[in-house]
Amino acid sequence: MKITDAKVFVNSPGRNFVTLKIYTDEGIYGLGDATLNGRELSVAAYLTEHLLPCIIGRDPFEIEDIWQYGYKGAYWRRGPVTMSAIGAIDVALWDLKGKALNTPVYNLLGGRSRNGLLVYTHANGKDIAETIEKVHAEKEKGYRAIRIQSGVPGLEKIYGISKDGKAYEPAIRGGLPAEETWDSSKYLNFLPKLAEKVRVEFGDDLHLLHDSHHRLTPIEAARLGKSLEPYHFFWLEDTVPAELQEGFRIIRQHTTTPLAVGEVFNTIYDCQQLITEQLIDYIRMTVSHGGGLTPMKKIAALAELYHVKTGCHGATDMSPICLAACLHLGTAINNFGIQEHMRHNALTDEVFPHAYYFEDGFLHVGDAPGLGVDFDEKKAEQYPYEKAYLPVNRLGDGTLFSW
Ligand code: EZ4
Ligand code: CO
Fold first, then answer.
1. Ligand 1 mean position to 77 CA, how many Å?
2. Do 97 and 113 belong to one domain?
3. 197 with 318, same domain?
4. Which stretches in the chain have pLDDT values below 50?
5. Does residue 39 lie within any of the structural domains?
6. Element (H or E) spanning 19, and its range?
7. Which ligand has the nearest atom to the CA of 211?
8. Which of 41, 225, 374, 375 has the fewest C-beta atoms under 10 angstroms from its C-beta?
9. Do residues 123 and 40 share a domain?
């Protein structure tokens, strides 16, 4: 079999997505997700201008070599744009191979290790009462693990909370990035109050998660983890920006609250120290931004040695193709932890028909060959790309801060 063509589609069916389709001389095609929220066109250009010309004519079964060609062959290594582009090709090739061999991708990765994948969803409220209402609503849908985010008294706009009652989408269309204001001390004082109320309301069995979205220092994160211990969270996510991996030692010395990090990582080197020093419990890298299934399988294997489980990023800016790839990986590996499930809207689901389904708190990957996701190009064409930015964040005195 030979790769005959490859195309990049940039559309906005419900939100922006970049989709890669690789065609072969046998009529079989593979799909990959190249979406990088707020930076979509850079990945599209990296693919069309630089990577795709090099794969035309190649045997699509040579997945490892094509991955190495994209990674080592560029000389310039790592980075979200590069790795998302390499990841889209990699995932498309696994999809293609599964279809060619008439088997789901999880069978190519080692076979089924579990029946379903525990997922967590989001409950976002403007205050404690509304957050509790949202947790009730998600629990009724069958979720057994729920991430709680709430407005913080004294802070105007906050990560995770929508103002208009619609599902939360951080990337705003039109204009320059929105600006938010942050205050760590207000947040640190408030969060244990939220956790206490939610635990009292729901009892011990519901798994609770929370995302600090990279805004704390290590010692602040240590305080937060400690203050949440009585409420036994499933995990505390992205407490500090993790470029300084050894910073996590400070958090770890002070708290038994499990730690998750890594949704912005793109190679194994971003988490090598975090894993080998057992500074985290869950690695949050997702398949598309992590360079594809080829490196993610290696990262999961390294993590397994150190009691670290996976918890792949699964916000709505990961298309159904990426979500399916995460589900195939999670189905096959032994150290799967949990999968984020921030449901896509109806239009996104229509443009990407898929075999995976949610039931009783678990996502099931289905047994369609390949990834089990298709892409309706005709429908997607009706929704052209619209430039959108993620917000930026400042402290009260105007200092630029992490969003
Ligand atoms: O802010 O995916 O855990 N989920 C998150 C997400 C990220 C977005 C950024 O594009 O932190 O909501
Ligand atoms: Co997050």
1. 24
2. no
3. yes
4. none
5. yes
6. strand 17-24
7. 2
8. 41
9. no
396 vs 156, 164, 234, 238, 401, CA distance in Å?
11, 24, 32, 22, 10
Q: Which of 46, 71, 143, 159 is catalytic?
A: 159
Residues 24 and 150 in one domain: no
Cα–Cα distance for residue pair 332/122, rounded to 1 Å: 25
Residues 146, 134: Cα–Cα separation, whole Å: 10
- Same structural domain, 232 and 132: yes
Query: Active site includes 289?
Result: no
Tell me which of 122, 210, 213, 289 is the catalytic residue. 213
Of 215, 216, 198, 194, residue with least CA distance to 206: 198
Domain contains 381: no
pLDDT of amino acid 375: 98
What residues make up the domain containing 122?
Answer: 108-368+388-401
State pLDDT tens for residues 238-258: 999 999 999 999 999 999 999
207 part of the active site? no
Which residue has the CA at smallest separation from atom 10 of ligand 1?
A: 37
Residues contacting ligand 1 via CB (< 6 Å) = 37, 170, 211, 213, 263, 313, 315, 317, 390
Q: Considering 104, 131, 146, which residue would you say is the last residue of a domain? A: 104
